[in-house]
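Thread: "does anyone have the structure for this chain?"

Original post by V.I.:
We have the sequence but no experimental structure in hand. Need at least a predicted one for the grant figures.
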Amino acid sequence: FLLVCFSLGGLSSWFGSNQEDDSSLLVSPIVNRELIASVVAHDWPFTIDNVVCEAWAYHYSDWDFMDSLVAKLEEGATTLDSEGAATRLVVEATTLSTDKQLLEYALSLRAYSPQCELHRGLARQTLLLHNERGNPPDAFVVSGAAMLTSVSDLATCTAGAQHELLPGEVPRQGTSDAPLVILYANMTTVSFVEWYNALVKEGIPFVVRHLGHVWYEEVGGTPTVLQGYGVRLDI
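Reply from O.Q.:
Generated one for you, tokens below.
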């Protein structure tokens, strides 16, 4: 029982508006308590990487935030062993104090979890398409029809089929003529940092999407029935 909105806008409009501070404004007026409870209880996979994904969805395509996040991961000052530690990391990587407060509020509501589930579904489809059914890498790149699992493979990036961007998705612009690539990653891992820095260094335009627990369904998790391009799920 989910309200589905096909929209080019993101959920950030709720937080960027001048409406009064009332959590009831963050849900559809037709939603009842039973629906809210059913959404909160939905059996979507959750790891500490989901916290970073939801923060990225909140800042969507604010590459200053992502640069700050990667820099803090490289420092290694925070041990990412819990949801609380991941939350502190993304809050610290956020520059504006007002954004820090709103981000914490959004994370507590799990407001951006549908977008992370969409990313996970797309990553899962990519791995299945390339017959990669073993332990997935912590990060990989899709370039045209090719799936790259090693940073050394970046030299093989060639022009191919154009990737469809999701609503609100803005690529990090590169300095080379290389085609746009998609970086799927668990955004707290060493592999993510390596891929991110390599793409920036090579000047390759790219977008970042959440990888998550791609084989969740195979270990007994309940599959998400509704997924798709341009679909936004509003609680």
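V.I.: this helps a lot. Residues 44 and 117 are 7 Å apart (CA to CA).
O.Q.: and The two ends are 10 Å apart (CA to CA).
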